[in-house]
Amino acid sequence: MEKKLNDLIESYQEDMIADLKRLVRIPSVLDPDTAGPGAPFGQGARDVLDEVIRISEELGFEAKDYDGYAASVRYGSGGREVGMLCHADVVPVDDNWLTDPFDPVIKDGRMYGRGTVDDKGPLIAAMYAMKAIKESGLELDGHINHIIGCNEETGHECIKYYLTKEKCPDIGFSPDGSFPVIHAEKGIIRYTITHPVEQPDGTAVFVKKIAGGTVVNAVPNLAKVWLEGSKEVLQEVADSFGGEHAWEDGALVLSFTGVSAHSMQPWLGKNAILPMLAFMKDVNGLSDDVKKFFTSLDSLYADGWEGKNIGIACEDQLSGKLTMNLGVIRFENGISELKVDLRCPVHIDLEQIWKTTDINCQKYGFHPVYWQMRPPLYIPKEAPLVETLLGVYNEMTGEKAEAITIGGGTYCRDVINFVSFGPVFPYEKELAHEANEFIGIKEFIMASKLYAQALYALLRPEV
Ligand SMILES: [Zn+2]
Predict the structure, then answer these.
(1) Quick check: is 89 catalytic?
(2) What are phi and psi of 292, to 5 degrees?
(3) How confident is the chain (463 residues) per 10-residue block, as mean pLDDT?
(4) Greatest CA separation for the chain
């Protein structure tokens, strides 16, 4: 470990905090309404990229703007190119924030604000790691390329565009995941089932609407059904339900609750849609088609998150079980729509999983269509990149951690020979995309030291 680099990072602390605040203040959420030439993701993303470029120039680097898609900040020349991949766009905010998400505040050793941990904090930590390398005067065999994208959250068009203009760095890491180092990520399939359901006139219990879940990558914690019919019949349904219900303009509204969790860890949650299917399939007075709809979905999905009923349950030694999340269900005007997210073990062929899913859904008359099929990422634990980063992490923290596998899809899938390295420490809760997102100041500085040490470890001249 180079003590000099750690000391330099310590000396930057106040500047790092100030620069992170500058970025958090810019609401760089995707905004198609203000998109245009040079600002493909809208004005917020354009503004944040300008600010990133300004900061990098203040630190003595030259930055290049790739038409508003991404920027590249470089240091050094020749030799191998070691990349760092960060992003400056953020996800939208909701009403659950206790402070203004775009006006960063420091409280109890934490900075609160949208993007503090995903991914503006790590971006600044990486930028100052480059500064420490530069000011340390350490000799390098190669150069650094810090790539900053503006569309990580909604399509990765940023890095894709960058790679049409430049070659991919030889090797690198992305400060947009977790420590110690993520060497394998499951494959991802996302599909939709759109299915018409008939309810003839005179149906005793008429399903007016269903709304369960909000996004495909979260275990839904709420599913609601709106039923219409005679007061008498509906009252019977309400009585047999026994759970939380309400009346809205004569319609009976049943609420099914669960516990939300990320779709890559469904065992931490409880899917609210599943008890809804189980209850609805036995309601008297539904049209035949609706009854079949609920019964079929119940047969396919009710057994939980492993995909056993669909026939895709599997696991491998490296990355564990396949996970399945029926994340969204909608029904209105005779058309139902479901969205499902699958995370497939690293050694499993996605095409085979898809084939089985397709065949078994069709048996029930459903026609699934996938809109995402992302192959897994896998760099062996023994690869020099993984060993080097893990070595840096363990030396700096005094831990004996091992490289980890996750179900999530990180930025690294768009590039070759990259792994995720921080910023979330193993003892921390994942706060990306949550309300009241924060980064611990101690963790922010530590991440920067780890990035500086990692850069040097990957660029140190062979002796
Ligand atoms: Zn991110």
Answers:
(1) yes
(2) -65, -40
(3) 97 98 98 97 98 98 98 96 97 92 98 97 98 97 97 93 98 96 95 97 96 92 96 95 92 95 92 97 96 98 95 96 97 97 96 98 98 93 96 98 88 92 93 91 98 97 76
(4) 85
Domain ranges, residue 80 = 3-184+377-459
- Residue 118 C-alpha to ligand 1 middle, in angstroms? 5
DSSP states of 207-263 as a string?
Answer: EEEEEE-S-TTB--SEEEEEEES-HHHHHHHHHHH-SSEEEETTEEEEEEE-B--BT
Centre of ligand 1 to C-alpha 119, Å, is: 5
Rounded (to 5) percent helix, strand, coil in the chain: 35, 30, 40
The yes-or-no answer on residue 395 being catalytic is no
Distance 410 CA to ligand 1 centre (A): 7
User: Which pTM value belongs to this model?
Assistant: 0.85
Please report, as a single letter, which amino acid is at residue 426. P
Task: Identify whether the C-beta of residue 230 lies closer than 8 Å to the C-beta of residue 238.
Answer: no
Q: How far apart are CA 21 and CA 113, in angstroms?
A: 9
164 & 220 share domain: no
- Number of C-beta neighbours around residue 206 at 10 A: 20
Total tally of structural domains belonging to the chain: 2
51 and 124 co-located in one domain = yes
51, 81, 89, 298: the active-site residue = 89
Q: The domain spanning residue 235 has which CATH number? A: 3.30.70.360
Distance 432 CA to ligand 1 centre (A): 7
Amino acid (1-letter code) at residue 332? E
Q: How far is CA 461 from the centre of its chain?
A: 36
Structure-token pair, residue 216: 């495909």
Q: Which residues contact 65 (CB under 8 A, 6 or more apart)?
A: 49, 53, 71
Distance between Cα 233 and ligand 1 center (Å): 49
